[in-house]
Specification:
Layout lengths: L11 H12 L7 H8 L1 H47 L1 H12 L25 H8 L2 H34 L10 H6 L15 H16 L11 H29 L13 H11 L6 H5 L8 H26 L19 H11 L1 H25 L10 H22 L4 H35 L14 H26 L1
Helix pairs in contact: 1-9, 1-12, 2-3, 2-10, 2-12, 3-4, 3-10, 3-12, 3-16, 5-14, 5-16, 6-8, 6-14, 6-15, 6-16, 8-15, 9-12, 9-14, 10-17, 14-15, 16-17
Family: Belongs to the TMEM104 family.
Organism: Chilo suppressalis
InterPro entries: AA_transpt_TM (IPR013057)
Amino acid sequence: MPVTEAGDQYSVWVGLIYIFNLIVGTGALTLPAAFAKAGWGLSTISLVFLAFMSFMNATYVIETMACANAVYKWKRLQIIKRESIRDHDSDEEQSQHALGDLEEPLVCGDSIPSRYYSLDRRIELGEMANLFFNKTGRIMFFCTLCVYLYGDLSIYAAAVAKSIMDVVCSTAPSNVTEPIDWHELPCFNTSSVSAHPYSRMDVYRIALLTFVGAMGPFVFFNVQKTKYLQLFTSGMRWLAFAIMISLALRLLCVRGPQGHPPVFSVTGLPQLFGACVYSFMCHHSLPGLVSPIRGKNRLGLHFALDYTLITAFYLLLAFSGAFAFAHLNDLYTLNFVPTDNENIFLEIVEYFLALFPVFTLSTSFPIIAITLRNNLQSLFLDVPRLESYNFALRKLFFPLITVIPPLLLTYFLEDIGVLIEFTGSYAGTGIQYLIPTFLVMTARRHCVNLLGLGVINKYRSPFSNVAWAVFVLLWAFVCLVLVSVNIIEKKL
């Protein structure tokens, strides 16, 4: 796969907006309720800790990507050397030019960064797994990744379609709780007997097809093509969160604290973790977002600033909501439905917040879809020779098998609660903690054997000590236990 073209690049700040959009989604709307249940003290500590763990594993992904770039450059150097030996007279000058920015591994000192290591070439997690994992590891990796990404796309599509349906259709009666009743409800309250009303399910499916039809074509392109969509929806996202935080703070000033969450409540910890699984997830799409960034020298610092901003934002949202409302819905936007429908401003706010998942997930859907497409190509194709494959296979087949399965699943199965639990919990733990840690450990060993100890990776994670990796693995085990407890509690 070629190095990203200069015209396809964007500034580090645009890249951070992409990452912010990817992390801050509908998962943030479940934080206030979980925050209040676990207690504001325990929740604050947990949220900061989870942000740190997510950031640590993000640095692991970046380091592994640099290692993969080094491996490809080393292989290219060996090919050039072999060609030079075969035809020394005619190819010597060309070979010296081709070596260009490469150097012999052993010429680097302990303090000299190697030009082998870079982030210029986009190498997806699947391609890294092919480089550094054995056969068993690759199978486990792709199973985990595909379950997570297909599940994500299905969840996003269903959430957007249901949000549109709730805005378009009349309010469902409060006594309707069973799914079969929900399916049969007419979308519009009408007294006409002759006219066959659209059911809520009909409107849901129309909204689903419209959403996939609008966002699905982005899977045929690269992340850079979504730049203006990202910037627009980022503004809508900030506006929605600003409205929710402002209204909650206004209620606190006018009525005083209505909610009285405890300081510590261990019983709410499993639910809090479940809410945080999506809240800091970006690792699966980092390679596609990082490689086009210009000026990556201080990338680690910029990532740290991005994570700090997101953590502060989450804390403000959760604190204001936990103390402003006596009762918090699992989806925070439901707390802002106005009681006075004659107030035009409040009615506009109601509709805007009801459509919030549409704004957020419309941004994330193309990125997730492109990530899944690239990793499916890594699984079935030889990525360095990608351009040699048939056009229909590269440009049509893989994009279609990326978006069609989630569309079919959510078209016939709109209740995907079990999928959310499994995808966001078990597969999410694997994507956020286990895969980056195992990748960076094997990548370091591979590059040391290949290049020698003297070649320095300037993108090496600041958490390079093996003790940090062991700590992450232990934490992943604790996460799986917490998730299992949370699911069992819901079943009882």
